[in-house]
Design goal:
By secondary structure, the chain is mainly beta. 12% of the residues lie in helices and 39% in strands. The strands form 4 sheets. Strands 11, 12, 13, 15, 17, 18, 19 and 21 form an 8-stranded mixed β-sheet that branches. Strand 3 and strand 4 form a beta hairpin.
Length: 355
């Protein structure tokens, strides 16, 4: 009889343990490090997590307009009052062409992807007035720029979100000199993926040996299915199928025209959620700055490929020594496709001609 009770107790403990493990696994699907736990899929997350379901809905918006221009990242004009440089940004949803026959629904600053470039000089007093015409709240984070805490753009921490129809003013002194960017910090998984990003360049007060050409390239990804745009994410079922440089996929990317002997600076900015090893054919380059900070000449690496991770910035320089059409592209070769068809994506041509 004692043996029977003992076995009954053992079976009861095993059963309870099994139930507990099953409950833990179902509530922690996809958490890294849980060996043996199934990876969550979008469908599973949508069924159990309303916030995740929202993030996986098609990108939309009220009053979606055609893009205001076909080229993004162009210099934003400003007005000056009492020594303050004043810029104005409006967030709005537009139909943005990433190819001549492929449009995405994009959330933008001033109607383009990337948004307009803000370019100032170190020490400038900057004021940016942001009007939100999206149907969701948003904020702006000044990525890498040394701003006061109240201007950092983190919703619920340094500021209240900018609600639809509202306006918010950011103000700070531009520092340090270097390559930076600005982007949404509200539901960034969706809003940044949808196009709310732009370059922010702070020039030094006394530029030393400026290059002949200075080109900024923002690297991002998109997911387009059945004519609808989704936030591209590094998770099963939400991976990107289009990849863009300054909002365009090859062969819609710009061609960089260079004369032999000119020195070219490329400012790589990783704004998406994937790493991109950018490779230049024909010529080596030197890494002269990382994340906006100059690299001493004695520490500059000479390379032909640099991996640009999300949030990183690399300034590289090269001299155009060889005439011809030279390819610049990501060396994760799937990233040089458009909806799985090569060539496409993260490719552009550097056309070197005789002086």
């Amino acid at each position: 009889m004692k043996t029977y009770h003992y076995l009954l107790l053992v079976f009861l403990v095993i059963g309870l343990s099994s139930c507990s493990t099953s409950k833990f696994s179902s509530e922690n699907v996809g958490i890294e490090g849980n060996s043996g736990t199934a990876t969550s899929t979008p469908g599973m997350m949508m069924a159990t997590n309303p916030e995740a379901a929202h993030m996986m809905q098609p990108i939309g918006g009220i009053n979606v307009q055609p893009a205001s221009d076909e080229k993004g990242g162009q210099l934003l004009e400003y007005r000056e009052e009492s020594g303050i440089k004043i810029f104005e940004l409006t967030t709005r949803a537009v139909q943005w062409p990433i190819l001549d026959n492929v449009f995405v629904t994009a959330w933008t600053y001033n109607g383009t992807v990337p948004g307009p470039m803000i370019r100032v000089t170190e020490g400038d007093q900057v004021r940016v007035i942001v009007k939100n015409e999206l149907d969701e709240p948003t904020t702006i984070h000044w990525h890498g720029v040394e701003v006061p805490n109240a201007m950092d753009g983190v919703p619920g921490m340094t500021q209240a979100p900018i609600e639809p129809g509202e306006t918010f003013t950011y103000e700070f002194i531009a520092k340090p000199a270097g390559t930076f960017m600005y982007h949404s910090h509200y539901e960034g998984d969706v809003q940044v993926s949808a196009g709310l990003y732009a370059p922010f360049i702070i020039d030094p007060k006394e530029p030393a040996n400026p290059p002949d050409l200075d080109i900024t390239l923002m690297i991002s990804e998109w997911r387009v299915q059945n004519g609808r745009t989704y936030a591209a994410m590094p998770m099963s079922g939400m991976e990107p199928n289009y990849f863009t440089l300054n909002g365009k996929a090859f062969p819609f990317t710009e061609t960089i025209e260079v004369k032999k002997g000119q020195r070219v600076r490329l400012r790589f900015i990783g704004i998406g959620q994937f790493i991109h090893p950018m490779h230049l054919h024909g010529m080596a380059f030197k890494i002269v700055a990382t994340d906006g900070h100059p690299v001493p000449e004695t520490a500059q690496l000479t390379k032909d490929t640099v991996s640009v991770a999300p949030g990183e910035r690399y300034d590289v320089e090269f001299e155009a020594t060889e005439v011809g059409q030279w390819m610049l592209h990501c060396h994760i070769l799937h990233h040089t496709t458009n909806d799985n068809v090569e060539p496409g994506g993260l490719m552009l041509i550097i056309n070197v001609t005789e002086p």
